[in-house]
Amino acid sequence: MVSVKEVKEMFKPKLKPIIWDDNENKLTVLDQSVLPFQKVFVELRTPEDVADAIRLMKVRGAPAIGITAAYGMVLAVLRAENLNDVIKLMHDAKSVMDKARPTAVNLSWATSYMLNRAREYIEKGEAKDVKELITLLKKDANKIFDDELEAEIQMGLYGLEKLNPGDVVLTQCNAGGLATGTGLGTALAPVKLAHILGIDVSVIAPETRPWLQGSRLTVYELMEEGIPVTLITDTAVGLVMYKKMVNSAMVGADRILADGHVYNKIGTFKEAVIAHEMGIPFYVLAPVSTFDLKSSVDNVKIEERDPDEVRTVRGVPIAPENVKVFNPVFDVTPPKYITAIITEKGVIYPPFDKNVRKIIEK
Ligand code: MRU
């Protein structure tokens, strides 16, 4: 078995969706709302720019929005004239960015982490002025980004143990390198590592209506890497499992609760239930920053987006103009349908209400 370090040396990402320039303090993201038809990078200069980019899904995917928001907290401190300004500026930035999207917990995890770090540096006198504080906070944001890649490699290696040569993996949405900012990904990490190591594995990607993360992003990302992928409609998920065209399902997550309930892109629940019925292993891959051990299913908000995302397909009408629409963009999968949750700290098996804490809090 190869090590995380060895994979890190072998991994040459084709995509760099989040770029932070440490010298210029400049944050640039690849606009995922127009991929794969246009490859446009946009500069985000303020926490408000970051919040807009997250809301408009120019940057999306739970880990990617967390990393971008961490840099957004650095951008907030760039506005400070002295250390007395800092906490209020960071509080305001956190509140603007946390509101951009409600379901992925990585976002508020990252902003809280950065705010707490700033408080500590100021209280302990480790930052004597704003300049020193910015240097320390940039290191923290860079570390969140670096740690994410290491976590993904570790998850990828654990996930690889669940695959055999020739396997076909069903996924959902885009839980690849675009969604995490690293170029690798969570759910797609095992497949990408297999590819790097010369093991033949392929993917079936549902298109993921309404925003089409599957057809626009997963397919694009895998084709860029030279990994075989077949696009299906969301409604074909049942048939491909019935016909045993896939050996396992691997998906990402936006939030995982202590009892093993998994929030992920709409369509995940349906995929998990069918996998369970068909005896196909269903794996969730997510870093520790995606776990929310405090909330319960009664108080997690599932984001609902613009009805026009459903009435149209990328601007082209497909329904009567004023039809009533329900557009939840995430769903929640109960633990009984999940075979295992793969994290960088280890693989969690049922019973999740006991084992999630054992692994995450260790
Ligand atoms: O609405 P999106 O595109 O941000 O949703 C993304 C997902 O649901 C992903 O599966 C999840 O964030 C995990 S990404 C590694």
UniProtKB/TrEMBL annotation:
Highest taxon, organism lineage: Archaea
Any idea which UniProt keywords this protein has? Amino-acid biosynthesis, Isomerase, Methionine biosynthesis
Q: Where is the active site?
A: D254 (proton donor)
Q: What is its EC number?
A: 5.3.1.23
Which sequence ranges form a coiled-coil region, renumbered to this chain? none
Site positions per UniProt: Transition state stabilizer: C173
Reactions catalysed, as given in the entry: 5-(methylsulfanyl)-alpha-D-ribose 1-phosphate = 5-(methylsulfanyl)-D-ribulose 1-phosphate
Task: Please give the Gene Ontology molecular function terms for this protein.
Answer: S-methyl-5-thioribose-1-phosphate isomerase activity
Which Pfam families has this protein been placed in? IF-2B
Q: Which residues bind substrate?
A: R60, G61, A62, R101, Q213, N264, K265
A GO BP entry? L-methionine salvage from methylthioadenosine
What does this chain do? Catalyzes the interconversion of methylthioribose-1-phosphate (MTR-1-P) into methylthioribulose-1-phosphate (MTRu-1-P).
> What does the sequence similarity comment in the record state about its family?
Belongs to the EIF-2B alpha/beta/delta subunits family. MtnA subfamily.
Q: What is this protein called?
A: Putative methylthioribose-1-phosphate isomerase
**Organism, scientific name:** Stygiolobus caldivivus
Supply the source organism's classification.
Archaea, Thermoproteota, Thermoprotei, Sulfolobales, Sulfolobaceae
